[in-house]
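Cont'd.
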Amino acid sequence: MSSYTLLYWPGIPGRGEYVRLAFEYTNTKYKEINVPNAFSPHLSPKGPHFAVPILQIDNGWTLSQTAAILAYLAPKLKLAGANEHEQATINQLTLTALDLSTEAHDVHHPVANALYYEDQKDEALRAAEDFKSLRIPKYLTHFETVLKGNAENNVLVGSAISTADLTLFQVLEGLLFAFPRRMGTMKKSGQYDKTFALHETVKNLKNLQHYLKSDRRNEFSMGLFRHYPELDSE
Amino acid sequence: MSSYTLLYWPGIPGRGEYVRLAFEYTNTKYKEINVPNAFSPHLSPKGPHFAVPILQIDNGWTLSQTAAILAYLAPKLKLAGANEHEQATINQLTLTALDLSTEAHDVHHPVANALYYEDQKDEALRAAEDFKSLRIPKYLTHFETVLKGNAENNVLVGSAISTADLTLFQVLEGLLFAFPRRMGTMKKSGQYDKTFALHETVKNLKNLQHYLKSDRRNEFSMGLFRHYPELDSE
C-alpha cells in the first residue's frame, strides 16, 4: 500500500479537509505536513503546483488540485462507485460541490483574494445577497434532485458513500457555519430534506466518529468558509 | 466506438470549447445540440446536471462538468499521457487552466453571474486590477515553470499533447481576446516564452487546422471571455 502525506496550511479545514475525510472514512493511514516552509518550494510561482492541498505519495511523486487528488484516490480507497459511469459521475458531483465551496469563499472575497475582507466588504454584501437568494437554493435543489433520483440508496451515486458524499457533507458543514440563519431557513423549508439527511448520514458514519470528535479536526475560522454575521440572513 | 453528443449553448465557445478541442484534435466524431430547449430538462434545478457542457454518450448516459468530461474522455482519446501519474497530473493542470478560465470570467462578473456587467462595473474595474497585476502573472509563471520542467518535450506533461495543453491553449486564446494589451506586455517580457510557444504549437497542430479555420468555431463575444477595453491595460 502506498504511503500518503498531505501538505496543507495549518489551523484551518480548508480544501485539505476534503482529502482528509476520504482518508479518515476509509481508515487510510496518512501523515500531514502543515509547515508552509516545508511545502512552499512546491508552490507557485516556483513549483509545479499552483496551490495546496498537495498529496505526496511514497515520498516521491506529488499531485495537487483537490478534485484531481480525490479522483486519483477514489478508486484506490473504494470511494469511486461500482463502475466507470459511477466513477465519472462521482467526479462530476465532487466538482459541483467544490464549485459551491469556491462560490462560498468568493462571497467574502469577491474582488480579490489578495485583499482583506474589510477592503471589499461593500462588494461582499452585494455578493452575499445573490449567493443566499439564488446560488444556495440552486445548488441544493440540484443535489436534492440527484438524491431523489437515487432515493433507494440515500447517497449521491450508486449504493455506497463516495468522495461526492464526503465532499458535499463538508461543504454543507461550511455553509452551516458561515450562513447559519440562511441554512436554517433552507432546512425548515422541507425542500431539501434528502440533502440535509445526507449531511446527517455522513456526520454519523461509524468510521468518521473518532476523527470528527478529535482535536485533529480543525474548526472553521478564517479560511474558505467564514462567518460574518452581516453577510448572513434568513 | 462510442457516439458522442455535446450539449452546449449556441454561439459562444465557452466551456464547450474545451471539449470540442479534444474531439477535433483527435478526429473523433461528435454531434452538437445547441438548442437550449433540448438540454434544459437536464439542467438545474430540475435535472441531474448543474450546468452545460453536458456530454451524451451512445444516446443514453450523460456526464457534465468540463473537467469530469475531459477526465473521462482523455484516456479514450489518448490525451491522458502514458501512465497513471501522467494522467493525474494532466487532470491537475487541466483543472488549474480551468480555474484561470473561471477567474477570467469572474473579473467581469465579480458580484453575481445573475447581474449584468453594467450593474457590477465598478467592482469589475477593481477585480481587473488584481487579475492583471497578480493573477495572470501567477498562473503564467506556474505554467512556464511546468513547461521548463519538461523542456525536452514542449508540452505540459509527458511527450504528447494532452487535454491540459488543449485547455491551456484555449484559455490563452480567451485571455488574448479579453486582455490584449495586458497579454501583449506579458508576451513582450520574455518571461513566459514557453507558455506562448505552447499556444503557437497547439494553434499550428495539423489536426486542428481545419477546425480552427472553419466557421464551426465560435468567435469570442459575450461568454466566459469578454473584451471590455476599460478592464484591459498594459
